[in-house]
From TrEMBL:
SUPFAM superfamilies: Annexin. This is Annexin. GO terms for molecular function: calcium ion binding; calcium-dependent phospholipid binding. GO terms for biological process: response to stress. Pfam families: Annexin. The keyword Metal-binding applies. Gene3D superfamilies: Annexin. Keywords: Annexin, Calcium, Calcium/phospholipid-binding, Metal-binding, Repeat. The lineage of its organism: Eukaryota, Viridiplantae, Streptophyta, Embryophyta, Tracheophyta. Ca(2+) binds at F24, G26, G28, E68.
Length: 221
């Protein structure tokens, strides 16, 4: 499998921006030239190239790429060129357009990013699409999935490692009661899963396993 490597010596960002501008000129787009530049620069270098391109040519590089490229190649280049926060925003927006009640891309972004990373993604979403991620998630989802996902993308959770073991015991019992009743959309269950820190949730789930003899994922399957 080929590996993309950043050369030890690279041209300046201004030179790279010039090469990309040249790639867009003429009847066709020079895709090989685009790859030779963007595929061999790290994230910081790509960010600087974008800034220089905008300053020099008065156009956002991403918009230029969007105009010149198409299909899977366009998507791959755009995702590679975006910052992590912008990439999450792009993928989230793409997911909301699929009109599905169970979109795991949105769930992955909401559950696996740190609070700061999720906040950065929401800022990028706001800047790129002129609306909030929360409103699009609320509009394009429904039912129990909406009840869970909207607060997940809205909350700025504590990211530290401190946990409250008494709280873990109390909330493990709440989870058990609601799951036993198959009341999966109960507001207390959703509150716990969407507002507690990951460390606190892990403590609660560990207590659930130790006290009730089953891991929660086995009970739910």
């Amino acid at each position: 499998m080929a590996t993309l490597k950043v050369p030890t010596q690279t041209p300046s960002a201004a030179e790279d921006a010039e090469q990309l501008h040249k790639a867009f000129q003429g009847w066709g787009t020079n895709e090989a030239l685009i790859i030779s530049v963007l595929a061999h620069r790290n994230a910081a270098q790509r960010k600087l190239i974008r800034e220089i391109y905008n300053e020099t040519y008065g156009e956002d590089l991403l918009k230029a790429l969007d105009k010149e490229l198409s299909s899977d190649f366009e998507r791959s280049v755009l995702l590679w060129t975006l910052t992590p926060a912008e990439r999450d925003a792009y993928l989230a927006n793409e997911a909301t357009k699929r009109f599905t009640l169970s979109n795991w891309v949105l769930m992955e972004i909401a559950c696996t990013r740190s609070s700061r990373d999720l906040f950065a993604a929401k800022q990028a979403y706001h800047a790129r699409y002129k609306k909030s991620l929360e409103e699009d998630v609320a509009y394009h989802t429904s039912g129990d999935f909406r009840k869970l996902l909207v607060p997940l993308v809205s909350t700025f959770r504590y990211d530290g490692g401190d946990v409250n073991m008494m709280l873990a015991r109390t909330e493990a019992k709440i989870l058990r009661d609601k799951i036993s009743d198959k009341d999966y959309a109960h507001e207390e269950l959703i509150r716990i899963l969407t507002t507690r820190s990951k460390a606190q949730i892990n403590a609660t789930l560990n207590h659930y396993n130790d006290t009730f003899g089953n891991a929660i994922n086995k009970v739910l399957t």
